[in-house]
Design brief:
mainly alpha, Recoverin, domain 1, 2 domains, two-stranded antiparallel sheet, two-stranded antiparallel ribbon, 7 helices, about 10% strand
């Protein structure tokens, strides 16, 4: 909610309105399918593959009922907007601790290529550079 608190009034209004649009039955929760359909329509799932989205949605769904309240929705939105770090080419989990980054990619372009330790150890990735540190 720190992200939301620091948005402008207009941005907060837009975020709340989008949440209300996604709340298809007015119960102040957003269902996974409604949010997934919205992201697909807007092209966001090109940025975050469906398996990554589902994994994150499940982690944020505190009671396991397949829905998000407003606070969880804001967290998911914030992470999808590029703030989350994923084992993108490997298993697709969100990276929470130690991970490996391709230093060559970062130094060359400022973009990163991250992997979890398990995917790196098991060689579960395809990348043009062989050094990750």
């Amino acid at each position: 909610m720190a992200y939301y608190a620091n948005l402008s009034s207009e941005q907060q209004f837009q975020a709340w309105n989008l949440y209300k649009q996604l709340d298809s039955d007015g119960d102040e929760t957003v269902r996974v399918q409604d949010y997934s359909d919205f992201l697909k329509d807007k092209g966001y799932l090109k940025k975050v593959p469906p398996n990554l989205f589902m994994n994150l949605f499940s982690m944020l769904d505190k009671n396991g009922d397949g829905t998000l309240d407003f606070e969880d929705y804001i967290t998911l939105y914030y992470m999808i907007e590029g703030r989350g770090i994923w084992c993108y080419d490997g298993c697709g989990v969100m990276l929470w601790g130690i991970n490996l980054v391709c230093v060559k990619c970062y130094k060359a372009s400022g973009t990163t290529y991250e992997l979890c330790c398990r995917c790196f150890q098991n060689r579960n990735f395809k990348h043009q550079h062989c050094f990750l540190g």
